Amino acid sequence: MQEKLQMLPTIPLNDGNEIPAMAFGTGSKWKGQDVAIYVEQAINSGFGFIDTAAFYGNEESVGRAIRESGLNRSELYISTKWGVLPDGGDIQVSIRESLTKLGVKSVDLYLVHMPSLMEDDWEGYWKEFETVKTQGLARSLGVSNFNLEELQRTVKCAKIKPAVNQIKLHPYNYAKQKSVIEYAEKHGIVTEGYSSLTSITQSPGGPVDAVVAKIAERIHATPAQVLMLWVRSKGVVIITTSSRRERLEEYLDIDSLPALTEADVGEIDAAGAKGAPMNVLASLQEQRVRIAKSFHKMHWALKTVNIVGVAGMLLYVGHKL
Fold first, then answer.
1. What is the CATH number of the domain that holds 198?
2. Which of 218, 53, 70 is nearest to 143 (CA)?
3. Candidate list 38, 56, 183, 251, residue with the active-site label
4. For residue 57, how many C-alpha atoms fall within 13 Å in the half-sphere facing its CB?
5. Burial code of 169-188, b = ≥16 C-beta within 10 A, e = fewer?
6. Within a domain: 4
7. What's the pTM value of the predicted model, to 2 decimals?
8. Is 56 a catalytic site residue?
9. Same domain flag for 230 and 287
C-alpha cells in the first residue's frame, strides 16, 4: 500500500481545476498489455497522476492497480481518452465503458485522442463531448495531438473550452509545435508533452546531446532530468513512463534541481532546431502514429459496411512496425 505520494507542483486549468506537473503514461510500449504492476510501481514511487486511454487497451489493469493501491480516489489524478466509438454507441457510452474498466465514477481529465475522430462533425462531436463534463463524468476536458488549426477550430465552437492539449514534444520538434503551444497558452489551455526524451531514446547522437550533457554536468543532473526541466520551462506537463523504479524516482527528483536558466533553454532550443539525426527506429515509430491516425479515419468510412475488422488488421500491422 502506498503510504505517501510525492507532492508535485500543480498547474491551474482554465476551468478552475488544477493538474499535476508530471504523469505516468500507460501508452507507447504498454499498449494492449497488463500494466497493473507498472502502474502500482509508479504509484509506490510517488506518481499521483496516471494517464491512460481506451485506445491503449489497458484501462482494466490500470483500474486494478488503482484499487490495489489502497489510496482514496481523491488522492489520484486520472486521465483517459476517447478513442473509437463503440458500435451503435456514442461518446457517453465510450466514457462510461472507460469508467467501468477503471473502476471509478469519474475521471479528472477526459481527452479526444485524435482530431480525426471529429472530422465528420467537428462542432457536433465537441458539443457531445461537453456533456461528459456537464454530467459529472469528468472534471476537465481536453484534446490530444491537435495542431494549431485543429485547436483553433475547437476553441471557436466550444462552450466549454478545452483545458488541455496533449502533444508530442521534444527539442527536435519544438519549432514545429511552438505555435500551438503559444496559442494554447494565450487561451489558458495547458499543454501536456509526451516523448520528451526522444533525443536520448530515439535520436541519440544529435546536436542536442552535447548541450544537454554540459548542463547536466553543471547542475549535477542526468540528461533525462535536464530534458524534463526543459519541458517544464515551457510550462508543459510532463507525460513519462518507465518499467524501472529507479528511473521513475529519477524523474520525480527534478523538483530538487534548479530550474534551467534562459540561456540553457535557448541553447537547447537552438540545438533542437538543427534537426535530429536520421534514425530508423524513430522513423518506424512515426509511421506507427500515421497508421493509427489512418485507422481512426478508416473506422468512420467502414463502420456502415461492418468491416472494421480490416482496419483492426491494419492497426495490428502498424503495431508490429
1. 3.20.20.100
2. 53
3. 56
4. 11
5. bbbbbbeebeebbebbeeee
6. no
7. 0.86
8. yes
9. no
